[in-house]
Specification:
With about 650 residues, the chain is an alpha/beta fold. Among the domains are: about 5-205 and about 220-255, ANL, N-terminal domain (Rossmann fold), CATH 3.40.50.12780; about 465-635, GMP Synthetase, Chain A, domain 3 (2-Layer Sandwich). It has 21 helices and 29 strands. The strands form eight sheets. The protein has a five-stranded parallel beta sheet with strand order 4-3-5-6-7, with helices on both faces. The protein has a five-stranded mixed beta sheet with strand order 12-13-14-15-16. Strands 2-1-11-10 form a four-stranded mixed beta sheet, sandwiched between helices. β20 (about 440-450) and β21 form a beta hairpin. The protein is globular.
Length: about 650
């Protein structure tokens, strides 16, 4: 009967001096051993109990990955309370629902920014009594009731230790595997987020399953740089960390992640596709600016890697000359490139959350990085399907792992049964009944199928899959996310939103990648005065048109999805942004909100207009607002007849 606090105490007892956590501060890495962490957790637990936190109550945690915030999660679990991590980049208003829904009275935050958000909400969240902060910078002159530093909380815990010497051990012993371990709020793409209840048993079971699948040990090094509120980061840097006992490294700041990645050299790495896209975009920009001989060598070596590298990663036979040539390429290009990216020691790397482009996926595997895909969600504790070594494919998300059963409903929706399923949605019995069947199957909401080889292939969200009505592809399937992901596979396209359900053709909004397209424009001596100006350049539209038509040609080869080809598109005058309500905090498209906000643009696309004027309000990080206006061009894209399969 394992719980996270017992796992912590087990490591502290058997390997007290081994490193548990590292944090970079002022340019230096500071190490916290398992014994030191256990002592810190005990002091925090006693302090929280003295402050009034009781078994079953919720403790909100807001901030970047920080050792003392991790310790606060463990401290809450030690006394039977439930940590609730929230996204640190969310605006204050986004905290109101989860704080009230979970009846939160206690919060631990990282710094002044998060303190200000919670203080701003005190009238809307009257039950929030106590707020503790980790970083005291900027907070010296704050005089607010219930506001204190973590140092003060730790001091109170130390004082309570002498009065209640057996309290901590007794509380940890009272914990059960079926107790609630954490409450994770979903991204809320269609309304208020839902609180997903996970127990120690569900999270530890999936952490162990992933550990067995990839043979993880306590010698792994992990860099924790994604939001702790995201279940993906939480399972890799908290649940699996405690299950395996490896080292979690916390970067100094978001701006130093790439430097810290190189210094740590993680052996186990996890990131959504957008991170891998960003790393590759940076590499390609640097290569385009390199001297001609270096570009020539890079191109020749990458051509060899694309032909040979993936076969070597997949364990397929490769000729001796090709092996020797690849070894030389590894010495000259691939090895230095892995080192530049910070992946020189990576043994296993995973990507999840969105589909990854085949070219992007193949690039990393071709240069010797064991990049694989996984499938899961907040409700399934992440680990449902994983790709085995030598079976990594760009178009699937792996095979079901230990304990997982998969079934397809008649509608094509994927159903999952697993020991890692959520206990339910907090205070939302209707949603729980809708998601979980009486015999334990979870409705994922995803449409997909199993290949003959047993690999799972995801097409789209089941609710988003529609049909065209009228036109050349009348009745054809429309899978917007599938098309959007194909468009985003191009490094010059950052985001895309497609429309077409119950319409005669598919139209799209496109966001350019400002860094990649900006570099492309500068090398062609194209002047521009910011994002809006660059996005509407005729040359940029031609670049986007080439990408769209390549996607259309590819879709035409798929008899099932040939109707999803994009007929008309425009390039938006602003980047889609979570602060403007257009994306979730995990960068998922809020399709309904975008359709409502930009209805005039959708109407123009389907009315056959050549352009459409629009004004849009944007919100800055400091709360200020401004208006962005532009006359957006609308372009026709070539579509192709569907290629019929042989009878």
């Amino acid at each position: 009967m394992e719980t996270f606090p017992r796992l912590l105490l087990g490591h502290a007892a058997t390997r007290p001096e081994a490193p548990a956590l590292r944090e970079k501060a002022f340019g230096l890495w500071q190490t916290l051993t398992w014994a030191q962490l256990a002592t810190l957790v005990q002091e925090l637990a006693l302090g929280l109990a003295a402050a009034g936190l009781r078994r079953g109550e919720h403790l909100v945690i807001v901030g970047e990955n920080r050792p003392r915030l991790y310790a606060c999660m463990l401290a809450a679990q030690s006394i039977g309370a439930v940590p609730v991590p929230l996204y640190q980049d969310a605006v204050a208003a986004e905290f109101v629902f989860p704080l009230n829904n979970a009846e939160v009275a206690f919060a631990v935050v990282e710094d002044q920014e998060q303190v200000d958000k919670l203080l701003e909400l005190r009238e809307q969240v009257p039950q929030l009594r106590r707020i503790w902060y980790d970083d005291p910078r900027g907070l010296r002159n704050y005089d607010e009731p219930g506001l204190a530093s973590l140092d003060e909380l730790i001091a109170h815990g130390r004082a309570a230790q002498s009065e209640r010497p057996q309290f901590f051990a007794t509380e940890v012993a009272a914990g059960q595997a079926e107790d609630v371990a954490a409450l994770f709020f979903t991204s809320g793409t269609t309304g208020n987020p839902k609180g997903v209840i996970h127990t120690h048993a569900t999270l530890i079971d999936r952490a162990r399953a992933g550990q067995r699948f990839d043979r993880l040990t306590d010698r792994e090094e992990v860099l924790a740089y994604l939001p702790p509120a995201w279940i993906g980061q939480n399972i890799f840097s908290f649940a699996q960390w405690l299950a395996c006992g490896y080292v979690v490294n916390c970067p100094e700041s978001a701006s130093t992640v790439s430097i810290d990645l190189k210094e740590i050299g993680p052996t186990y790495y996890f990131a959504p596709p957008r991170v891998f896209e960003g790393l590759l975009t940076t590499v390609m920009i640097r290569m385009e600016d390199a001297a001609r001989p270096k570009r020539w060598l890079f191109d020749r070596c990458m051509a060899l890697a694309r032909r040979v590298g993936t076969r070597l990663m997949d364990g397929q036979p490769v000729g001796l000359l090709d092996r020797l040539a690849y070894g030389l390429g590894d010495l000259l290009i691939y090895g230095p490139l892995r080192n530049t990216l910070g992946f020189s020691r990576v043994r296993v790397a995973y990507t999840a959350g969105e589909a990854i482009g085949p070219d992007l996926f193949s690039f990393y595997r071709a240069i010797g990085i064991n990049l694989k895909q996984l499938y899961g969600s907040t409700e399934t504790a992440v680990f449902v399907c994983l790709q085995p070594d030598h079976e990594a494919r760009a178009d699937t998300v792996g095979v079901p792992i230990d304990g997982v059963e998969i079934r397809l409903a008649d509608s094509g929706e994927l159903l999952v049964r697993s020991p890692g399923l959520l206990k339910g949605y907090y205070k939302n019995e209707a949603a729980t009944r809708e998601a979980l069947t009486e015999d334990g199957w979870f409705h994922t909401g995803d449409a997909g199928f199993l290949t003959p080889g047993g690999h799972l292939k995801i097409i789209d969200r089941a609710k988003d899959v529609g049909r065209l009505s009228g036109g050349a592809f009348d009745g054809a399937m429309f899978a917007p996310k599938y098309v959007e992901n194909k468009l985003k596979f191009f490094p010059h396209i950052k985001e895309a939103v497609c429309f077409g359900d119950r319409r005669e053709k598919v139209c799209a909004f496109i966001n350019i990648d400002f860094e990649a397209v900006g570099n492309w424009a500068e090398r062609r001596n194209l002047p521009y005065a910011g994002y809006t100006d660059l996005a509407q350049r005729p040359e940029v539209y031609q670049l986007m048109l080439d990408c769209v038509e390549k996607v259309n040609a590819d879709l035409a080869q798929d008899e099932l999805l040939a109707g999803s080809q994009v007929s008309r598109f425009l390039v938006l005058h602003k980047e889609l942004d979570a602060d403007d309500g257009e994306l979730t905090r995990t960068r998922k498209v809020r399709r309904g909100a975008i359709a409502e906000k930009y209805g005039v643009l959708i109407d123009a696309l389907y009315a056959g207009k050549a352009s459409q004027y629009i004004e849009t309000q944007v919100k800055f990080e400091d709360g200020r607002t401004s208006m962005v206006a532009a006359d957006l061009r609308i372009v026709e894209a070539k579509t192709f007849p569907a290629v019929r399969s042989a009878a």
